[in-house]
Amino acid sequence: MTTAAASQRFQILALSGGGYRGLYTAKLLADFEDEIGAPIATRFDLVTGTSIGGILALAIAMEIPAQRIVELLANRGGEIFKRRWSLAGICRAPFSSVPLQALLGDDKIFGDQLLGSCKHPVIIPVINYSTGRPQIFKTPHHPDFKRDHKCRLVDVAMATSAAPAYFPRYTFNNNQYVDGGLYANAPGMLAVHEAQASLGQSTDHIHVMAVGTMSSKFTVNPRRNREGGTYDWGGVNPANMPKRVFGLSISVQEALSDFMLAHLLSNRYFLVDDDLTDQRARAVALDRADSAAKEVLLGAATERSKICIGNEDCRSFLSHRAGAPTFYYGAHTNQAS
Question: Whole-prediction pTM value?
Fold first, then answer.
């Protein structure tokens, strides 16, 4: 690559959602940081993430070591996914959002810091259920982005990770929010649009590294009732129906995003993910945080990071130096609006 081409290169890091499977993503990023000896955000000009990927994206943009998130999920995941009485998920979500909110509010993670405290540009998709519209929280990297930087990081993180049928809706600023994974579980295309529309980047200069969460592919059981009722979708437990639909939605979205980014960017798109074999799939789920899940997720991430670090395309991403970001408001204001 010529010096001129390298200087024009604009890199995006896109992190998928997937609940506890985000431990896989966090471990990959921690290994990358260990390899380069620097925060992973210093290699990317824009970071995006949804759900657990959104939590990771915010942490990365704050230059919180990814290893700290690995330890949080590995050591405290059981608290986040501790089931509560919910009448099989009919009366309320099976998991409370209180433990996750408390963990993210610790001073070692986000504390009371605001989105405007991020050191690198980041965008986080959510759904504003009060308005029925998609919403994207953004750092103040454009003069029009005047309000989001005043939001607490914890609130943005909780909003993007409020997965339907798993956690309650999250409320702040008198609006109710649910998981952005319903429309952008793999947010790479959103970030490409952001780079073009808000940061003035040419498509030819954009490079995307997308990191998945070993997502399961949801497929039909041909022996099941095909009438489209609750039993068809969820089996004997009606509460499984929304989980199945949500799982299918995020799985298909990831496949679509992967296809579109590969088609748009060709060799400027690099996907990091692993397929689940039939045996490992039994140990891993969005809400499973036991020792078997940890073993699969951490083990797979360790092997995948080793392969990636030896890959020339991946090394090109890790050797890039992101330019100094421009912020118009917030703690890191360096440009007058």
Answer: 0.94
